[in-house]
Amino acid sequence: MTGFVSTEEWVERGRVARQAMSRKALAEHVIASDRPDPVALKYASDEGRDADLLPLKYERMGVSPLAFYRGFAAMHAYDLGQGQHSGLNVQLCGDMHLSNFGVYASPERNFVFDVNDFDETLPGPFEWDLKRLVTSFAVMGRTRGFSPAATSAAVRTVAEAYRRRITELAEMNYLSVWYDRMDQSTLETFAGSMAKKRVDKKFEAGLSKARGKSHARAAAKLTEVVDGKRRFRSDPPLLNPIDRTTAESGMLTQLFAGYLSTLSADRAQLLERYRMIDIARKVVGVGSVGTRCWVILLEGRGPEDLLVLQAKEAGPSVLEPYLRKSAYRHQGRRVVEGQRLTQAASDIFLGWVNGVDQSRQFYLRQLHDMKGGVDPDRMPATNVRPYAEICGVGLARAHARAGGATMIATYLGSGDKADRALAEYAEAYADQNDRDYTEFMAARAGS
Q1: Helix residue ranges per DSSP H, 29-147
Q2: What is the DSSP code (8-state) at residue 120?
Q3: Domain boundary among 342, 366, 390
């Protein structure tokens, strides 16, 4: 918690930071002489994960340099930790790339566009999130074969949109910043301002797809009726139902009771009206493959009143070796509190719990609640700049929620010096990612 800080003090912090680290220095990309071998670091960072699933993780990472970048936040965290930084701390996403934004339903059932992954969240220098985000657009442009000019324009758009929006937010009162959100009308304005009609149609199609991802749809996709009872489907290794008579099932039932205690009283009472009817292990994402993850099927009034929750293992943030440790000893709570602080509207069932043996920690949320996102492997070139703009705006809003927009705006200034430096960084780190990906693929081929 920062407590009260006057506007003058925020401005002074931004000025001092610019004197200590120029905006031009944002282009700095330090490769330490003792930088760990990326393949060795990848394997080390996966210790403690389900070894049976690691081949699937590496297969997914090997699809492209972008998939590799998305699945290897630990390498970028190491490199960011070697250079100087602004010292202007905010609540970081921690793994801020273009696929970690998306649309989802607010508690009022309205669409919101926001950051949607907080596994690595931790307080830290604002530019670490921004550097990882601009680099993801550079890597995506190369992976998709976009022209250098188009890729560069997208990267610059992210940086400029962030700078402009953080400056606007710095002029707003705190409650206005807190309630600021990117809703459907805002998204439509962005899409229409920079793109052709065909992009608008694709955007609306994406929202329609997200609307269809209801609780009933999630349950229908993941389950089937067996002997008159709704159960999770068996689709190994991606989805593995758990025998309800086993000790593991009993453990999860016990964990669920502990999770309820972390919810507000009204939400716990709502969830208590449901009963647990099935559990399965589920593989999700790229970077998360190998962590313990379950889906929990709940039934309310009857067979058609279904809810699917996800329990996901949470370990220490990949940023922690280079920053202060989290204020929360429980890693699941670290994720939940970071998400609540930075998202405009969060899942009403966000909570956390310890494993029975206390050695593992988890957070829980709804698996699907009108959630949707972009597929970078299918995004047309005409969509990239509009998407880059809303990502830059979205990240600025997330950073401003935790306070300090004024210091960041003061540091970045009104010119494009920071934009150009961040674009230079993105290209340099995209080169580094290409080299690391080549080493990774060579190691896989030789194994």
Answers
A1: 38-45, 54-61, 65-70, 73-80, 126-144
A2: T
A3: 366
pLDDT digits (tens, 9 = 90+) for 180-238: 998 877 766 665 554 554 555 555 555 555 455 556 677 888 999 988 889 999 998 88
d(CA 395, CA 91): 11
Residue in 143, 130, 150, 151 with CA at minimum distance from that of residue 419: 130
Rounded-to-integer distance, Cα 109 and Cα 419, Å: 36
Average pLDDT over residues 290-306: 88
Residue where a domain terminates, one of 366, 393, 414 = 366
Tokens coding 424: 């230079």
168 against 49, higher pLDDT: 168
Q: What is the pLDDT of residue 260?
A: 93
User: Which element (helix H / strand E) includes 310?
Assistant: strand 306-313
Count other C-beta atoms under 10 Å from residue 24's C-beta: 12
Decide: pTM greater than 0.85.
yes
Which residues lie below 8 Å from residue 14, measured CB to CB, with a gap of 6+? Answer: 88, 406, 407, 408, 409, 410, 411
Contacts of 145-154 with C-beta under 8 Å, sequence gap 24+, read 146/381, 146/384, 150/381, 150/384, 152/423, 152/427, 153/385, 154/384, 154/385, 154/388
Residue 376: cis peptide before it, omega within 30 degrees of 0: no
Side-chain-side CA neighbours of 59 within 13 Å: the count stands at 6
At residue 279, the 3 state secondary structure works out as strand
Classify the phi-psi angles of 227: left when phi > 0, otherwise alpha if psi is within -120 to 50, otherwise beta. left
> Quick one: 174 and 258 in the same domain?
no
Largest CA distance in the chain: 70
CA 249 to chain CA mean position, Å: 29
Tokens of 353: 């719990």
For 42, the domain range is 7-28+35-97+116-212+381-446
Listed range (74-78, 157-161, 264-268, 303-307) with the worst mean pLDDT: 303-307
pLDDT given at position 299: 93
Residue 115 forms beta bridges with which residues? 101
Total of domains in the chain: 2
Rounded Cα distance, 39 and 245, in Å: 40
Q: Residue 63's pLDDT is what?
A: 95
